[in-house]
């Protein structure tokens, strides 16, 4: 369990304690709240404490506390935390009805989402909510969540099927466009950055003539794809795909100053989706990384890449 406390303008988020059991059970069993759970069973204090003292792997549970009087008014949570794919399912509730309609759920959830992205290093956060839970959906949409899938859930309490929205928020909303020659100077500056060169297969500084000749030949070939990754219309990285039938070699360069923010993983993840949608026949993607480029190794491993061979070389 983390001991981190998050503070906003009107609320504080702190770890859930055993002493919160009475409030949590009361809120959980209230009909106006219980109707939105996927399990409608009422719980006892003993049920809650048994759950509280269980391992609760891959989840975090926090209380929302109103700053003015220090009273707990609700909860937020992350569950199914996937450290490999950097995803988690989030939840929230304002249990004390006297604190609803004040924007406190939005403030608390904003703090919680930011904590997930910045401290848990999540790339994507998702929510499952009934399609008729309009208040919850409105808060989610105001924070940037979008419906990405609609599922069907059989409600055993009402003996009916109900629509469930799967809503998602990505840390980075990445837009890809194909590189053109007008991007050459910018990409060259990124490529010749010292940290970028030290992580590349070749550490040499590339001249403008060399770069222009290379980029022109790459763009003229139907076996190469160069994508510029933009976040909020600002260029943040470049993806290179060398296509050989069903096999593609990929490499990535980030704009200097944007390392260590989870951006590389996000660009690679969304780039692979773009690749598969654009060239469905692709069934294998490979990458060449020098052994001491730990940052790149972590990026590729985070997206499911695994080491398959060693390439030895010698300059003579």
Query: Rg from C-alpha positions?
Result: 24 Å
Helix content: 25-40%
Tell me the number of strands.
13
What strand line-up does the widest sheet have? 1-2-3-4-5-6-8-7
Q: How much is the average pLDDT? A: 91
CATH architecture of the largest domain: 3-Layer(aba) Sandwich
Termini, distance in Å? 55 Å
CATH topology of the largest domain: Aminopeptidase
Question: Brief overview, please?
Answer:
The chain has 2 domains: 6-170, Gcn5-related N-acetyltransferase (GNAT) (Aminopeptidase), CATH 3.40.630.30; 174-302, Gcn5-related N-acetyltransferase (GNAT) (Aminopeptidase), CATH 3.40.630.30. 30% of the residues lie in helices and 31% in strands. The chain has helices at residues 21-29, 31-34, 45-52, 104-118, 134-142, 184-191, 194-198, 208-220, 263-278, 294-302; strands at 6-7, 11-15, 60-66, 71-82, 87-94, 124-130, 146-155, 160-170, 174-178, 224-231, 234-244, 247-254, 284-286.
